[in-house]
Structure formats: C-alpha cells, structure tokens
Amino acid sequence: MATPFELGAEALQAIRLTLLLATLTTLALLVLATPLAWWLAHTRSRWRAPVGALVTLPLVLPPTVLGFYLLVAMGPDGPLGQLTQALGWGVLSFTFGGLLLGSIVFSLPFAVQPIQNAFESIGSRPLEVAATLRAHPLDAFFTVALPQARGGLVTAAILAFAHTVGEFGVVLMIGGNIPGQTRVVSTLIYGHVEAMEYAQAHLLAGGMLAFSFVVLLALAWVRRSAGRVLP
Amino acid sequence: MNTLLSALAAIVLLCVTPPGIGTARAAEVTVAVAANFSVPMRRIAAAFEADTGHKATLAFGSTGRFYAQIRNGAPFDLLLAADDETPARLEREGAGVAGSRFTYATGQLVLWSRQPGVVDERGEVLRSGRFERLALADPKLAPYGRAAVQTLASLGLLDALRPTFVQGESIAQAHQFVASGNATLGFVALSQVMADGRVGEGSAWRVPAGLHEPIRQDALLLVRGRDNPAATGLLQYLRGDKARTIILGHGYTF
Predict the structure, then answer these.
(1) Full-model pTM
(2) CATH 1.10.3720.10 correct for A29-42+63-184
(3) ipTM, 2 decimals?
(4) Which of A24, A46, B24, B28, CA to CA, is 20 to 30 A from A225?
(5) Is B83 left (phi over 0), alpha (psi -120 to 50) or beta?
C-alpha cells in the first residue's frame, strides 16, 4: 500500500502507459487528421457534410456508447474483429493496440477541427500564388500551407494528447483493466474511488487536475502567439 | 440561440415542478440498488407499489460509488448493497440506522460461456487451457470478482490463469465481455444468465459454495429514511414471501 504522498508501482505503471498511449495517439492523429482536415477544408464534394458529421460524432456520443460499439465491433463476431483475425492479429479488445485504435477514434474531432479551421483561414490564395511560382501542389502544401497552419497543428496535438489522457469511458469498455496493457490513470482513479482508497485516488486525481489546467493554459498561450503570427 | 435558451428553460422548469399532488399521501422511498440485483428489484418494487401504494424510486450502480455518494449526502433512504462490508461500515460510521441491517440475498457465482459445450458441469474447462481470456469482475471492487479469485485459489489455478484475466469494473461489465464474445468464458452472477428459472443460453458451471466465501448482499436503512414509512415498509417487504419468491427465481439464495 502506498502512503498518501508516494506513488506506488501500480500508479507509475499506469502513468507511463497513459503517456505512451497519449503520445502514440497524438502522432497517429496528426498523420491521419491533417489530410482529412485539408480535404474537409477544400472539397466541394457532396460527401463533405456527411464525412464532417462522422468525424464530429465522437464529440457528442457518450464515451460508453462509443466504447460499447467498439467492443462489439472488435469482438470475434464484429466486422473489425473478423478483419483482424483474418490478418492474423487476433482480437483487439483488451490489448494496447485496441486501446490505441479506440483513442484515435475518440479524439479524432479534437485533432481534425483545429487543423481544418487553420486551413480554412489560410484560404486557397497562398497556394495559388505558390502554383504560379511553379511549385508542385504537394510541395506547396508542405512549404506553404503546413507552416501557416502550425497554430492549428499545435492546438490539435495538445487537445488530442490531453483528451486521450482524460479518456475514461472508452477505456473502461474495451480495456479489461490489465496492468501494463490497458490500465491507465483514469481507470486506476476510478478503481481507487470504488474501492474506497481515497488517499491514492486524491493523489492521482489531483495530479490529473493540475495536468489538465497546465494543458489548457499552454493552449491559451499557443493560441495567442499563433494569433500574432497568422494574418 | 433564443429558441435554444427557451427550450432549455422549459426543460429546467419541467424538472423542478413538484410531482402531482395526488401522490402526496403515499410516501416515497429512494433506493440505491446494487447493479446485479436490478432485475429482481424492479419486479419487487412493482409488487411493493401495487401492494402498499407507496412509491419506490430505484437507482442502480456499484456499491463502492454508492458508499461515496451516501457519505457525501446523497438522498437515498435505503441501500441494497452487493456485499456485507459496505453496509456494516456505513452503520458503524453513523450513516445507517443501527440494527436495520440484514442479508436480503446471497449471490451464486457461475462460470459461464455463451457457447454451448464450452463449460462442463464440473468446471474442468479451467484446467484445459482451451481459452485465451477469462472475464471476471475486479476483485478489489466487486464481491463476485473476489469470490471468483477465491474459487481459483481453492482450485490451485490462480497463478496459472492470472495472465488470462480481463477485469470488468463490475459484474455487469464482466458479463458484457462474455456476452459479446470478447472473452470465451467468465465468472458472472447466476442472476445475470438466468431466464425462467434456469441458465438461458450457452453453458455454465454453478460454482460450489465451498470454494469461496458466501456472497452476502446486505440491506441497510439509511439515516435519511429512518422516519419514512415507505423505506421501513420496503425493508419489511423484502423479507416477505412475495419478494423472496422473486429473489429465489433469479438465482439467489438466502
């Protein structure tokens, strides 16, 4: 048993796992969300509205609903489970990989929206200028659009990271609370509260509170400095 | 925006409007009920309301959370816990009425799979190694989880099977893991898989009572319900024949 002012091995393991999950989720989301946000910002396709709604869905759905559907989809009879089994990966529920997939889905809108907003506020003008200077579209994207959207990218990264750290309902549903695999800080806090181990719960919950405050503070600073740079 | 605001205001007004005056004479009891007891309790509450004219409002959840809520002023009159420790603790701490505590049901643990033929009648499947994942409720949080761990320890299988554990935060979640096929088998409450007096689907092994400590579920009258006739009435009703028949029918004993 840890004393009230000392983190036990269990807590440290959960913190390490949470940070790993949040880091990988953020990296994966930056790679996935950037082209998606670009497409949403510029397309005139009739699929824009439905795809936009689909991306925003995790924002409004209760995490337990999302988690429940993920659990069913990842299960041996679910479409995702059938696919992963056919690929020889087995079933993803109760694994770190499954948790990562769930986190990516869960935090998708938090990554897409700031990047999309940034792309929209840049508009197509700078890229047209780049095109007249004979820049290849992909070249223009990396040298003109991305640098100008960096405020949106940083906001997306911070939000995705923080949101994953705070994720709970989805983890609870698809995790199975396995130490070192799927037991993250939020589910550990929940466990402590339910088991009436309030001292440990306070320590971790207080840490989470401080962390979240710092993240939001950092976000405000990023927004302010990005506002100065962007037109 | 204005329409949204007025819609919100309307909802708030609806929520704070006092209930009908016609019900003012019959008393009302708010009960915190352990999640595993939700199905029988709904039926008992319906019978209780029909027989007495009182009204019973049920809140389902985990006993640990109820403990935290009750200690922090939650408006419950009665607690039907999933264990016997939490009610004893609340009574000791002065949140419950001394002497009102009693065991309203004793839980039956089963090893269950939704596939027929997986779990045999003696639980030998546990020694077969023919499964990847064994679901159970977190032993720290749920009495059924603790009973599952005690059972495996009695069988000498705890260390061998620990790597296959997937833990639900409650027995309801452990059941969901098995019911959705994500875990091949798991320890659940008999009440969860019982339909019409027998195990409805798949295959199951009723864990003999000797393999774990009894899962005693205790009821406690809380201080808030001390002078509430509906609360004391329901506590009495739980000991009556009608309630006991319902409780037995859902796989509990006494």
Answers:
(1) 0.78
(2) yes
(3) 0.72
(4) A24
(5) beta
